[in-house]
Amino acid sequence: MRWNRYKCWLVGLGLLIGMSAQAATTDVAGVKFEESVQVANTDLHLNGAGIRYKAIFKVYAAGLYLKEKKTTVPDVLASAGPRRVTLVMLRDLSNEDFGRGFMQGIQQNTDKAEKAKLTSQFLRFGELFASVPELKKGDVMTNDWIPGVGTIVSLNGKKMGEPYPDIAFYNALLRIWLGENPVDRGLKKAMLAETESRNSYH
After folding, report:
1. Which residues pair with 23 in a beta bridge?
2. How far apart are CA 188 and CA 192, in angstroms?
3. HEC profile for the chain?
4. Which residues does residue 39 pair with via DSSP β-bridges, in sequence order?
5. Structural contact between residues 29 and 51, judged by C-beta atoms closer than 8 angstroms
6. What are the b/e assignments for 140-168, b being 16+ CB within 10 Å?
7. Cβ(144)–Cβ(39) below 8 Å
8. pLDDT band at residue 197 using 50, 70 and 90 as cut-offs
9. Would you call 31 exposed, middle or buried from its count of C-beta atoms within 10 A (0-12, 13-18, 19+)?
10. Do the Cβ atoms of 194 and 182 come closer than 8 Å?
11. Rounded to two decimals, what is the model's pTM?
12. pLDDT band at residue 5 using 50, 70 and 90 as cut-offs
């Protein structure tokens, strides 16, 4: 009898753990974004997540992680500590198409003075895509800002190139999704955790 009660307790505990693990993710087009991750020994929380569309096609799911919830672009760009943008590919894409989308987003949301200041880092970033022939459905790219180190880009857990030292470079990346002319306005709203947009992806 006591053993049966113990077994029931274990089963109940397992269900609770399973439920809490399930509750700790946000589903976007079948991609599960964890509600919290660790970057540079710092807990970051999912600010918002959504889908990047091109015409009617889903290109990737993206999630923004910050130390504290932010709902405006200036607050995100000014937020202290590490940050992360996670991209999960929803279709195969050539490095040329993917790189063009990134660089176009930077061009449309960065003023001339900042472009001039960051030219060498932008050039190196453009070369980064040439090292990956193709991005496959399911590939995961993380773009991390680590104070004192710089921007670190990783693909499927493998670091790509050396860090980009300037915070202005990371903010230029963020403006691809959050700038005045974002690559996808629906994704911008979702990453800023605007309720309507985020709910529409569930």
Report:
1. none
2. 6
3. CHHHHHHHHHHHHHHHHHHHHHHCEEEECCEEEECEEEECCEEEEEEEEEEEEECCEEEEEEEEEECCCCCCHHHHHHCCCCEEEEEEECCCEEHHHHHHHHHHHHHHHCCHHHHHHCHHHHHHHHHHHHCCCEECCCCEEEEEEECCCEEEEEECCEECCCCECCHHHHHHHHHHHHCCCCCCHHHHHHHCCCHHHHHCCC
4. 42
5. yes
6. bbbbbbbeeebbbbebeeeebeebbebee
7. yes
8. very low
9. buried
10. no
11. 0.84
12. low
Residue 169 has φ and ψ, to the nearest 5°, of: -65, -45
92-141 pLDDT, tens digit each: 999 888 888 898 999 999 999 999 999 999 999 988 888 888 899 999 99
Instruction: At 69, list the tokens.
Output: 């919830």
Architecture of the domain spanning 28-199: 3-Layer(bba) Sandwich (3.50)
Q: What is the pLDDT of residues 132-153, one digit of tens each?
A: 888 999 999 999 999 999 999 9
- Give which of 156, 155, 110, 109 is closest to 128, Cα–Cα: 155
- The full set of domain ranges for the chain reads 28-199
Cβ neighbours of 77 (radius 10 Å): 18
Q: Which residue has 């002319």 as its token pair?
A: 181
Question: Is residue 79 a contact partner of residue 145, using CB atoms and an 8 Å limit?
Answer: no
